[in-house]
């Protein structure tokens, strides 16, 4: 702690306050302390230090996004079940697309001597893992996306194939002006966009870049606003492919508000999709299987499996329910 | 491990297989091993043994139900956020209403020397906590329900008040034959049923026990079947109060299938409730606040707060959206 105080240029009591979450510390100061902590690799967990080298803590770390996103909830559920079955406890941490938070969370988990890590990486550079994990060499499995700047096992869904499938389905129902909503610079939605472009190209349809809408944030609200703009434009699309569950909700809200007759295919299935006024057509994968595969792979690695890194891609499939079968006028 | 093998009457290698989840072991044998483990309090986590008495592991255990239930996801999200802010990591465990699983999970978490525990207890007797937790006296906060046979802080929502509110709303819209679907013997739904009875009594309506439907399991499928039976009975209700989110989905599915004109009020809000053909009226509470309160209380206890046990009850409120305002014919 003394090192941290020195590096951050604060009193020892301030470090203690930040670390233990007691009392009040100015946000700026707290950030400086936290930065110092991660820089010098100070790890709070004293227990961890007492672990003998080579001993397995029988704990794995799971780092993912907002649990109220059903995608992450399904992933966590499956990973926890597999881990528990193999005798592992799960330390759960959430980062939600903030590289600084992710970096700190990874450091914390490794500091608590997890035997392995399952990470849904954000789009930032992951070269820092070398630094944080250089000493312990804790096995890592990336799930849903690979991480730039880091090599490890990866479990993905077929994003590009799913994107092509969704777009092809709309083309098959006579659509030519198909818009796509893309969450900002995520690996997954980028691949889904690639599938969209391929499907259009293969059908000889030129991509109208005005219909490729990249949002500033991947929220339902942004998607609602973007759909409003698209549908009230002089030359609106007849169909929309929304590349995440949150975006699909926004598209549906906007088209319900405008009472627009528009075809919609979403990526990722969601609860009650079949109960809406027009049941919703989606492309989806088995998300619990994604979590199970990641956990099994990780436990194999912990147990010494040393084959080259795997890249597992789960298939996507289309569920036609109604919104995707609205014919173009 | 040797003690476990002896007690379970199996070979040492069999215990190792069960503990590490490697190889195959007959289910019956595995159960015997697991029983022996929890009986003699063998704890796998060797790290834990090295913790000095009085030292804070800066880890809390969170034991709840199926994460794909948005109620638990919201709870977990909020608890993890509060814990992380205070410097605590969270060990996540799921039990899903199985007393044996819950008991084992609690033992595991305590064995890993968590500094405190947040538990959504099942309806079984919790006297076992005395035994499991007798030595360590780890602070516990129960959330969503109190636990029979154990004293600790509890954070609840106003179940009885919410049940009365839901029923009164239906009475106010002219309903006299109001059915209630109740999940089996859970504390929460029992209180909601009590609120239902009170509201009817206060309005001078006699409770028709044929309209009080206790399901064998709290699933959407059971609720769908029960609603079918109610709506096709000779003297059907004109309104249904469904006491959990899963049950509400079942009621809505059945009434959509039968195209029944029936009023519905659900307990617990859910995503897209406002987007359904008739938007759904619900009674709800702030579930993330439930998780936050529980985590704050627990951290206070870990930090030495020794006032008498608290019982926090969060208010319920009704959101009128459509299904609850269908008038009785």
Explain what you see.
The structure is a homodimer of 329-residue chains. In chain A, the strands form 2 sheets. In chain A, strands 2-1-3-4-5-11 form a 6-stranded parallel sheet, sandwiched between helices. Chain A has helices at 2-8, 12-20, 27-39, 46-49, 70-85, 99-111, 128-133, 159-172, 187-202, 220-231, 245-257, 287-302, and strands at 59-64, 89-94, 116-119, 140-143, 153-157, 178-182, 212-214, 239-242, 263-267, 281-284, 311-314, 317-319. In chain A, α11 links the parallel β8 (239-242) and β9. Chain A is globular and about 70 Å long. Chain A contains 12 helices and 12 strands. The first copy, chain A, has 3 domains: 1-42, lambda repressor-like DNA-binding domains (434 Repressor (Amino-terminal Domain)); 56-157 and 288-314, Response regulator (Rossmann fold, 3-Layer(aba) Sandwich), CATH 3.40.50.2300; 159-284, Rossmann fold (3-Layer(aba) Sandwich). The first copy, chain A, has 329 residues and is an alpha/beta fold. The model of chain A is unreliable at 41-51 (pLDDT under 50). In chain A, α1 crosses α3 (27-39), α8 crosses α9 (187-202) and α10 (220-231) crosses α11. β2 of chain A pairs antiparallel with β2 of chain B. Chains A, B: InterPro entries: HTH_LacI, LacI/GalR-like_sensor, Lambda_DNA-bd_dom_sf, Peripla_BP_I. Chains A, B: GO terms for molecular function: DNA binding. Chains A, B: Residues 1-53 form the HTH lacI-type domain. Chains A, B: This is LacI family DNA-binding transcriptional regulator. Chains A, B: Keywords: DNA-binding, Transcription, Transcription regulation.
